[in-house]
Structures are given as structure tokens and as C-alpha cells.
Amino acid sequence: MALQIGDTAPDFEAETTEGRIRFHDWIGDSWAVLFSHPKDFTPVCTTELGYMAKIKPEFDRRGVKIIGLSVDSESDHEAWARDIEETQGTAPNYPLIADPLLTVAKLYGMLAAEISGDAKERTPADNQTVRNVFVVGPDKKIKLVLVYPMTTGRNFDEVLRVIDSLQLTAKHKVATPVNWQQGDDVIIAGSVSEDEAKETYPEGWKSPKPYIRIVPQP
Fold first, then answer.
1. Which member of 44, 66, 110, 156 has the greatest number of CB atoms within 10 A?
2. What is the CA radius of gyration of the chain?
3. What DSSP letter does each residue of 103-160 carry, written as one string?
4. CB contact at 8 A, 94 and 46
5. pTM score of the predicted model
């Protein structure tokens, strides 16, 4: 069954390019992004891994750890990393999970549980559903799930934007409107009563409709 927002991210142990990890322990008290790939040496994923390496300081600044997953072995990951550095200018500077037995892909509902065999026997098209982004909070709950087709590169600037919103709304009782960017006005959450809103925002708010209460970003 597909994972939903609010579910606990399944824990697992796996080999990575930076050693063996237990996922929940690796996350610790941080936020985390797990993004998956259907096969090593695939062109779209090569561009994605390189771009994530370039913008990793932005994730670091937000206290977010990055980890990739590809349905191949650790030795293949290491060879692929050299290609990524050569073609994209930056090698992965975060761990990449080796999942040759498809264990994590199935645990996260990206492949059917009954699938078996070694990843080397499968093509990228066989694994095309292993193209997800999971954002996990410090509480180990899933906060965001994005699923992309193989032919469309992911927008990791959008992932950063969503993380900014998730972290803001986890701290304050607000929601972010369409196309919100850091520093834009926000909306007082519907769960906040009028009395509570007046106490928190004594200067008031803009209200084009009674159910829309717009204030500056806290």
C-alpha cells in the first residue's frame, strides 16, 4: 500500500556509499529527503543527482539531510558517481542507498511486494515507479510525497520551497498560499480562533473573505 502523508517513514538498514545505516538513526533530530531512482547510469537521474549535490548547502542550511536510493549495487553507485562528476560538474556529496534486492523500494511501496530477483536483471522501465521524493520530519513522519515519471526531471528548488513551508508551518499556526516563497505573506490557519488570532496578531490582518486571514510571515 502506498505511503501517505502522516505515516511513519518505514525504518530499514542498508548499505550506502557512506557505510551501513539504520534510516531513523541516520535522520536523528533532522529533517530528511529520500529521493529514489530506477537504475544507475540513467540520463535524467544523472542530472538530478548532480544538481542535488550542487544545492546541498541549501538543505544543510535548513537542517535537512539528503539521501538517494537507486536500485543497484554500491559498486555501481561508485562508478556512476564518477560519471555524475564528469558530466554534471559535482559528484554526489550525500549517501546513496544500494538496493539491489529491491528491499527499500518495496518497503516504500514503489514496487509491488511480490517482485523478486536481482536488480541487475531488471531494466529502468521495469523499475519506473521508483521515482519518488519523500520528505521526512524529525518525528519520522512523512510530510511530502512526490512521484515523477522517468522522462521528467525533478524540480528540487520546489522541494526546498516546500521544506521552507513545512518548517514554517510546523512552528507557527499558519498556512502558505499558492506559489508562496520565503518572506511572502501567509494565511492564519483555520484552526486558530478569532480570539487567538487577535492575541497573536494584535495589528490585525487582511481579510478579503471571512475565512481568509492574511498576515506577514512570522
1. 110
2. 20
3. HHHHHTTSS-TT--S-GGGS-TTTTTT--EEEEE-TTSBEEEEEE--TTS---HHHHH
4. no
5. 0.94
Residues designated as active site:
45, 139
List, for residues 19-65, the tens digit of each pLDDT value: 999 999 999 999 999 999 999 999 999 999 999 999 999 999 999 99
Cell triple for 5: 502523508
pLDDT grade for 188, boundaries at 50, 70 and 90: very high
Nearest to 38, CA basis, from 162, 147, 190: 147
Q: Give the chain's domains with CATH numbers.
A: 13-153 (3.40.30.10), 172-215 (3.30.1020.10)
Please tell me the total number of residues recorded for the chain in this structure. Answer: 218
Q: Which residue has the cell 530506477?
A: 38
Name the pairing type of β-strands 64-70 and 31-37: parallel
Are the C-beta atoms of residues 54 and 160 closer than 8 Å to each other?
A: no
* Look-up of cell digits 558517481: 81
- 22, amino acid identity: R
C-alpha cell at 80: 556512476
| Percent of the chain whose pLDDT exceeds 90 | 93
Work out the angle between the directed axes of helices 74-88 and 43-54 (0-180°, nearest 10): 70
Residue found under cell 475565512: 211
Residue 8 per-residue DSSP state: B
